[in-house]
Amino acid sequence: MVKSLFLISVLLYSSMMNAQVKNDIWLERLLREKASPLLDDILNNPDTFHYQLIYTQINRDKNNKPSFKHYYLNVNRDQYFNPASTVKMPVAFLALEKLNTMNKAGINKFTTMLADSAYNGQTTVTADSSSENGMPSVAQYIRKIFLVSDNDAYNRLYEFVGQKTVNERLWQMGYKDFRLTRRFVRATPEENRHTNPVRFLDDKGNLIYRQPGAYSDVNFDFSKKVLVGNAHYDRDENFIAAPMDFTTHNNAPLEDLQQIMQSVLFHQYTPAKQRFGLTEDDYAFLFQYMSELPFESAYPKYDTTEFFDSYTKFFWFRAGKQKIPEYIRVFNKTGWSYGFLTDIAYIVDFKNNIEFMLTGNIYVNSDGVLNDDKYEYEETGYPFFKEVGNIIYDYELKRERKYKPKPDAFVMRYK
Q1: Which residue from 203, 221, 260, 376 puts its CA 20 to 30 A from 273's CA?
Q2: 164-182 confidence digits (pLDDT tens)
Q3: Nearest by Cα to 15 from 254, 186, 222, 191
Q4: Could you tell me the pLDDT band of residue 19, with boundaries at 50, 70 and 90?
Q5: The model's pTM
């Protein structure tokens, strides 16, 4: 049934024929043994759904030191998917890193940060009603990014760090195929290269530091053409009977997203080259808000009928708006746009002493038209994540371990 609906949709990518696809037969067998007809149909049609999965098994030694074993299904770094809000994750990490490298007295993640305007399309920020003191800060933006995937919060951190720094730093860390070219706001490529002036103020409103507007002269490789679908609506809502061109859009291979998440959660066991320049306080802050649920947040305060427990928790919970048990925490970042759904997650069960990482994405757009807001998120996408999450979790419950994990670093106190 689902297969027939998807025959219209196409995904063209110039280097795909030469790509190296990673597959572990063991993982596919595990999923197929328990698969529903829907999941079985998805697994049978990788060219329709463009799904990719990475299951990361975590084993601890007698000293609680973890080792990681990755299992892949249809993972292909040359198969384009729109990363959507997942790119907010590395930008949040880089914003904290930048604060630490600035070495300016009186400036930290909680310091008031105002955005000014100095180029066409830029907007200012002088207050933030969602924060406890009514003022914007890097900390408040990061809270909103992980709690509900706020777009404006990402835009402001992108402007603070700067397009050039974001890309060159990620490339330096080894993520050569990563590409962040745009904010989540209507803007031209040139406008996205220009980022706002920023001011930091002390508690009395006095200026501590002024960062001038910046221009990114970074050279992006757009030689590989990326076309998705068979028709789309443009930004002016005109119907275009041709695929949508993603050649200059953000790009983030799934493996890179998984490694970035792992490098922060398990920073003590990450090679120095791939570690962000963060403090122990930064890590604790990130762990708090990567796992906190909207109802647990006082600032920002959210309407939990809209922002329910599993609003940004796709694996296992998002379908059906499930309540998450108190003994389970999900540290993750999701993204959804243009029919693509992605989740990068570390899941820990404190009652049963199990932990694992699960990363995946899927494309659900049966009519092949992009920007029409007609995607099968509820019918196909979220059920896919729920079922895969359930199968892996059930396997982890039964999996024998020589040493039980002691994930004490991930025990947070939520408000």
Answers
A1: 221
A2: 999 999 999 999 999 999 9
A3: 222
A4: low
A5: 0.94
